[in-house]
Amino acid sequence: MQHETSIAPAAVAARRGGPGVLAQALQDSRRDTLATFAACEHALPGLQVPLRADLNPPVWELGHIGWFQEYWVARNPLRQAGARADPLAPRGAPLRADADRLYNSSEVPHDTRWSLPLPDAARTRDDLARQLEGTLSLLNSAGSDDDALYFFRLVLLHEDMHHEAALYMARALGIPIDDPRWQPSPLPEPPPALAFEATRWRLGSMADEGFAFDNELSAHEVDVGPTSIDAQAVRWEEYLPFVESGAWAQAHWWSDAGLAWRAGRGSSSDPSSPRYLRRGAGSRADWECWRNGHWQPLRRDEAACHLSWYEAQAWCRWAGRRLPTEAEWERAALSRSDAFRWGDVWEWTASPFAPYPGFEAHPYRDYSAPWFDGRPVLRGASFLTQPRMRHARYRNFFPAHRSDVPAGFRSCGV
Questions:
Q1: What local confidence, expressed as pLDDT, does residue 176 receive?
Q2: Is the pTM of this model over 0.90?
Q3: Structurally, how many domains does the chain consist of?
């Protein structure tokens, strides 16, 4: 049985709420965007960051967020058509004349963003203020049906995604983030695993249930076998014995791709342990984590986080477990919401990111289709995720090697 009521109210409001709800959410999202940018501005001289694949210049990120909102709302002549809009329809001129050349992520190669003639932070903030003012004005007269609100919902959730990316980029750069909303919570001792019998499950979102990302469509029935699945994410308490016992360094727990990743990785922490962790000065049982710009004692009761898919897979082999499929994850999240805890970390699954039957790309063509390359699906949300993004049918997707993302996992019986 499906239980949509188990989805967080903020996520339901973002996908189904009317103009008033969206107007408030857009302003709340922008307030958080600017607050996190200000933390970066305070900590980074000249807002300079190293050229790395997992980073973007903060002032480029900020400008891109405003550009995206203006491009798909104010400059989009077919916004009333919603997901059926022609993405190639001629656009009106942007508020900043060279905005398309600077901020269109589909056209601007990643590594060139460090050398673009970007406006400074003050002018970029001014651009964003004018863009948001235009968006809110159009929203006020947009109507209340799902097509009319589609692009307003898209730009809201897009900004929320970038805010989470800004938060985990801040951790990578040692920038303190003091807002209590973006701190991890301890988990209790692991409850008993949840047992499920074989069943048919409706995987994915329905097109008539408000906003949905294109990769969530079309909803379809799948067979899900009997299994037991952890009631919460694996904590450091359960993960670290894999490292402390020496098993982490043993090749037979790793896939060939995992061994290649392990051999080539580099980070500010101990290369023989997970990212952002190092052994403390005391006994070998003491660990420290890199957070808010300094090393501090690790809480072993927090969800194991900033793990690559390879690290999750290797632990499962060592523990005699396996990663769940995304259908197993979604079934548990929606049918056992009373006992299935999620939202502490993004959770790697065993499922490759692929289109559902009947997939049709939405107007933002580069959101899903370019990434149907076999990378794993992640489900859930993390402690850095805006509540509006915490939807049990949302499919996240990152390459298996990424450990900068706040990702962990739960396991299933084999």
A1: 96
A2: yes
A3: 2
Q: How far apart are CA 185 and CA 320, in angstroms?
A: 27
Answer yes or no: is pLDDT of 256 > 80.
yes
Query: What burial letters (b/e) apply to 305-329, b meaning 16+ CB within 10 Å?
Result: bbbbbbbbbbbbbbbebbbbbbbbb
Q: For the chain, how big is the Rg over CA atoms in Å? A: 22
- The reply to whether 308 and 166 lie within a common domain is no
> Which ranges of 188-322 would DSSP assign to H, the alpha helix?
236-244, 256-264, 309-319
Distance in Å from the first CA to the final CA of the chain? 24
CA 205 to chain centre: 18
What CATH number did the domain enclosing 381 receive? 3.90.1580.10
The per-residue pLDDT for 209 is 86
Whether pLDDT at 384 is above 70: yes
Q: 121-140 and 19-43 are packed helices; what angle lies between their axes, rounded to 10 degrees? A: 170
Q: Residue ranges of the alpha helices (H) in 256-337?
A: 256-264, 309-319, 326-335
Count of other CB atoms within 10 angstroms of residue 150 = 24
Q: Which of 125, 155, 182 is the last residue of a domain?
A: 182
Of 182, 204, 219, which marks where a domain is finished? 182
The upper half-sphere exposure of residue 219, i.e. CA atoms within 13 Å in the direction of its Cβ, equals 14
* 175 and 35 inside one domain: yes
Q: Please tell me whether residues 169 and 209 are part of one structural domain.
A: no
pLDDT of 2 strictly over 90: no
User: Which domain covers residue 262, as residue numbers?
Assistant: 194-266+303-413
Question: How confident is the prediction for the chain on average, in pLDDT?
Answer: 95
